[in-house]
Design goal:
By secondary structure, this protein is α/β, with parallel strands linked by helices. Helices cover 16% and strands 29% of the residues. The structure holds zinc ion.
């Protein structure tokens, strides 16, 4: 693990001293708010069904947090073996109704929420957002009544936005500016559909929300074994090029946001200019 300091262009904004983020691949990250550690959608395994991880699985520190946020029931976001690596006492925020659909989830300490809810968990104020995305566990399984979620959260010192998986059909303009946004920019293919964001859409969403730093997630981590060989064009478009396209789209947008595309496991310290 290495620490890298990114100085944003706008030193006059609020000082979220102590804010840092570590991307573990896909939509799994640890966000160090100044006073609380938050983990999102932990998927820490080397493989998931037919999908293979591009790197070694994350270290044990990936399963350390004060609260875990789970955005929806898809297997690449709600992964019980990964959740079970966290201490049994760590609260897990899940879509309302999730334990009815996912057997074994009720052994965790759950906080069930729905869009529109605001809850305080482990010192974090969590505003629960809607997502334009399927709430089902999979196409073959039940779960139609369980919503897919996004989150805006803050410990009072720094704020974050993580939309989960979503398409653009949900408006983002009422979320309000945050210090750190974590936006999905890809997938595991072969197509993205209208329930995900590509890099350009992610930047359009960022423009609606407003953020000082934007971490790209949900790309380049897991892919089907056959894709690299049989569909090299798709592999490049969905797994290799998204971070570069994301940076280009941010630059073209004129937004005052610092794009973050760290390598797996790199802890990025977000420090306003002049305070490092
Ligand atoms: Zn999904």
């Amino acid at each position: 693990m290495t620490d890298h300091v990114h100085d944003p262009a706008a030193p006059s904004a609020v000082d979220p001293r102590g804010l840092a983020v570590t991307w573990w691949g896909h939509s799994s990250m640890t966000i160090d708010l100044p006073t609380v550690q938050v983990a999102t959608d932990p998927l820490l395994s080397g493989q998931l069904y037919h999908l293979r991880r591009a790197t070694a699985p994350p270290p044990p520190s990936a399963a350390v947090a004060d609260v875990v946020l789970v955005s929806h029931l898809h297997h690449d976001h709600l992964h019980l073996p990964s959740l079970d690596r966290f201490d049994r006492d760590v609260p897990v925020v899940v879509p309302r109704g999730a334990p009815r659909v996912v057997r074994g989830l009720d052994r965790r300490r759950l906080v069930e929420v729905a869009p529109g809810d605001s809850v305080d968990v482990a010192g974090v104020r969590i505003d629960v957002l809607p997502a334009h995305h399927s709430g089902r566990r999979s196409v073959l399984e039940r779960g139609g009544a369980v919503p897919a979620l996004g989150f805006r959260f803050s410990d009072g010192a720094a704020s974050c936005w993580y939309p989960g998986d979503t398409g653009m059909r949900v408006g983002f303009s009422d979320i309000g500016p945050v210090d750190l946004a974590a936006v999905p920019i890809g997938g595991w293919g072969p197509t993205l559909g209208d329930e995900h964001l590509d890099p350009e859409e992610a930047v359009a969403a960022l423009g609606q929300v407003g953020a000082r730093w934007a971490l790209a997630v949900h790309y380049g981590t897991y892919w089907p074994l056959w894709m690299r060989r049989l569909r090299p064009g798709n592999h490049r478009r969905l797994f290799v090029s998204p971070p570069q396209r994301f940076r280009q789209a941010v630059a073209a947008s004129g937004l005052d946001v610092v794009p973050l595309t760290p390598v797996f496991g790199e802890r990025v310290v977000l420090t306003p200019a002049g305070t490092a």
